[in-house]
Design goal:
Elements lengths: L4 E2 L2 E2 L8 H9 L4 H7 L5 H23 L2
Antiparallel strand pairs: 1-2
Helix pairs in contact: 1-3
Amino acid sequence: MNPRVRFGKLVVKGTRTTVAEVLKMLVNSMIDNDIVKGFSASGPAQVRACLLHAAYRWRCARRSIRSR
């Protein structure tokens, strides 16, 4: 399965919203309910998936720094 990409960034399944956009909304103190209201195709599960993706990327980056 190929992930959906928009402008080189991963997209939330079923939307045109990038994972980076969702993470920026969370950083700017929006709660997941506000994000879901703004983007009707996304839901709380998609917001959690964005957070899990960010955590995974952070963990992978941390491992690569340690191995240097």
